[in-house]
Design brief:
By secondary structure, the chain is mostly helical. It has three domains: 62 residues, lambda repressor-like DNA-binding domains (434 Repressor (Amino-terminal Domain), Orthogonal Bundle), CATH 1.10.260; 95 residues, Serine Threonine Protein Phosphatase 5, Tetratricopeptide repeat; 169 residues. Helices cover 66% and strands 0% of the residues. It contains 19 helices and no strands. The longest helix is centred in the middle third of the chain and has 26 residues.
């Protein structure tokens, strides 16, 4: 049998986006040793084979080149199944299937991350089982500590923060976890804008950075106005004026950016109009509240059905998930809208959102 262990190590490492340094640290060898193995200038000692195989979630035979292609084909099948299971959000029904996949590939981080997502998904009563959430927490913390990719580590941290906030209502816990994410000053978009003055930036990169930063800034301003500034009846007029200013800011950014990327801000504008409706309802201004909800529908209808790179869900649906209108619809069931519920205009808003929902 022709054993090509060096080539297999290199392929497996590249496939999983693992650096030579990370693999060397796991095995307690030097990066130079990994380089020699991959170039087949030398071979790993037999005692390293189980650790190597375990790291990649395969058998020693597969590491040596036996049925590697079949094994990877099976892994690709599981990845496709994970994509299907995750469309629109995991359900508890996915847990047994993902446990089987995890048993088959115990070291695969994609499968483990998907299992954590399914374990923390809501059941029939709207909440996940406590034991499942605890298991998901352990998986995610393990992945945080083992991750060799910043992007993947940050995905795990974000997932943990959502669990702490939504499922355990632990504000201190989720704020502490969120602090593990890089600050605004450390993100590449802010760094390029702050330190390079647009030098050597391609037009599409600069446009994408502007879209991301304006989307973030408008959300921050919206929530600052709604939840940080004093919220008394005498402040509502000023808050409505500030929300209109933020809507205008989003519109100006859309004009500057142009194209499908700019249309991502339509979701922000839709939410801003819904916030406006909240204050109008509280002031008993029915016509103004209905006009704001109608404007929300207008902008929700303009949110693209395909996401630009880097746009997080649920602002833009992915294939098989839901439209932005689908996420707006449940808010219409809030008690605050009871005074509007029987009006033809409010019913028309609900009907339009329902028609736009997929």
């Amino acid at each position: 049998m022709n054993i090509t262990i060096g080539e297999n190590i290199r392929k497996l490492r590249k496939l999983r986006s693992v650096t030579q340094e990370a693999l060397a640290e796991h095995l307690n060898v030097t990066p130079q040793a990994i380089s020699r193995w991959e170039s087949e200038a030398g071979f790993p000692a037999i005692e390293y084979l189980p650790d190597l195989a375990g790291f990649f979630g395969i058998s020693v035979d597969e590491l040596l080149g036996v049925k590697l292609s079949e094994r990877e084909a099976r892994r690709m099948e599981i990845y496709k199944a994970i994509t299907r299971l995750g469309e629109g959000g995991y359900t508890p029904d996915a847990i047994p299937l993902l446990r089987e996949a995890h048993a088959e590939f115990p070291g695969d981080r994609t499968i483990r991350f998907a299992l954590a997502g399914a374990l923390s998904s809501a059941g029939d009563d709207g909440q996940p089982e406590k034991a499942n959430v605890q298991e998901a927490e352990k998986i995610l913390w393990d992945l945080v500590h083992q991750a060799d990719s910043d992007d993947f580590r940050f995905d795990c941290i974000r997932k943990l923060a959502v669990m702490y906030k939504d499922y355990w209502h632990d504000e201190h816990g989720y704020e502490e976890i969120v602090s593990m994410l890089p600050s605004l000053h450390s993100c590449r978009e802010f760094f390029l804008a702050d330190c390079f003055d647009g030098a050597n930036q391609k037009q599409e990169i600069a446009r994408d950075n502007l879209r991301k930063l304006s989307q973030w800034f408008s959300c921050l301003l919206r929530d600052y106005v709604a939840f940080v500034l004093p919220n008394e009846p005498e402040t509502w007029s000023a808050k409505l004026d500030r929300l209109d200013w933020i809507i205008g800011f989003c519109g100006q950014c859309m004009e500057l950016i142009g194209g499908k990327d700019a249309a991502m801000l339509e979701a922000n504008i839709a939410v801003l109009h819904r916030y406006k409706a909240t204050y109008y309802v509280a002031r008993g201004e029915t016509d103004e509240a209905l006009s704001a909800l109608e404007a929300m529908c207008d902008h929700a209808a303009k949110v693209p059905t395909e996401s630009a790179e880097g746009v997080r869900k649920p602002l833009v649906p992915e294939k098989g998930s839901h439209s932005f209108a689908w996420y707006c619809l449940p808010f219409m069931n809030q008690e605050r809208y009871d005074a509007l519920r029987d009006t033809p205009r409010f019913r028309a808003v609900v009907e339009r959102l329902t028609a736009l929902s997929v």
